[in-house]
């Protein structure tokens, strides 16, 4: 987590505007700092914000895998949202440790996954 802020940072990369706005609102209401884009060209530069969690549509990731591996902190989690298992597999092959969630997206499942990761980060920081 970021020393300058208590709130964990989540980067959302999603082309579906309605889902992007919904995720941003839900995460902010839950106490997360959010940054977002629907533009694949902006994803790379936004990775430099070092989010705690990256939630990205599978279609926005191809060509960005090396930047994601290089720019995301090792403690960050990547969640890939995909329309079908084949699309998810193609992306997660390139991003070891990424979590896949299929459409239609369970917002409760997404939140639980993010919250579990953030809690683990907090516990690790308290020990270290």
UniProtKB/TrEMBL annotation:
Ranges where the Response regulatory domain occurs: 9-118
InterPro entries per UniProt: CheY-like_superfamily, Sig_transdc_resp-reg_receiver
Q: Identify the stretch annotated as signal peptide in this record.
A: none
UniProt xrefs under PROSITE patterns: RESPONSE_REGULATORY
Protein name from the UniProt record: Response regulatory domain-containing protein
């Amino acid at each position: 987590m970021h020393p300058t802020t208590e709130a964990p940072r989540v980067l959302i990369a999603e082309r579906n505007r309605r889902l992007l706005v919904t995720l941003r609102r839900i995460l902010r209401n839950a106490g997360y700092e959010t940054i977002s884009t629907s533009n694949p060209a902006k994803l790379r530069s936004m990775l430099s914000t070092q989010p705690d969690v990256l939630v990205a549509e599978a279609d926005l990731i191809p060509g960005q895998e090396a930047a994601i591996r290089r720019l995301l902190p090792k403690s960050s989690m990547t969640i890939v949202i995909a329309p079908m298992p084949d699309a998810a597999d193609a992306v997660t092959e390139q991003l070891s440790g990424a979590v896949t969630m299929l459409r239609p997206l369970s917002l409760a499942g997404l939140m639980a996954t993010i919250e579990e990761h953030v809690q683990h980060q907090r516990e690790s920081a308290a020990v270290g």
